[in-house]
Amino acid sequence: VPVRNVSHRVIGFLALFSAAGAEDFGLRQTRLAELLARKVSSILLTQFDAGTGLPTRASFEQSVAALLTGRSGHVGDAVIYVDIDQTHVINENFGMHVGDEVIVKVAEVVRRRSPVAALAARISGDRFAVYLADADADHASRVAEELRAGAAELSQTRPDGPLKVSVSIGVAPVPAQSRQPLSHALATAEIA
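Request: output the structure for the sequence above.
Response:
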């Protein structure tokens, strides 16, 4: 059964299998599969950013909350806040399609250069967050520097001029005793 996005473009397939020798699927099973495909599509649209494939802010917050709830006695966590510099200048000088390409490429840097166990998300237009469990400030700063360097590598010379890509990054510890530890850490990292 095809899984479709809001514009009805196929973004994947839901495949159902039956045991060898079993009867073919009937109308009821077919309708159930179609319902499941719509549910999968709904989950994908609400949990993942369509442009970058990264989790949305809401999904990110849910994942971090689940992680914090299920843990006890850890060394501390950190959050990294990544903001692409001067996206509006890129949009004005090269067009919004180039600005969108930069956002997608920076998202790929965030995805590939974050540690395997990190939680990364696109939290708004040109902003990303990375949650590092059991990470001290030094480790988080090293990861942040890796992300900054990766974004800088995206700079290029184009026929219509130089395209400079840079990011501003803030790092903050996640306060263990806070009622809203992620919100506080993200606000602190944004200021940083």
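DSSP finds six helices and eight strands in the chain.
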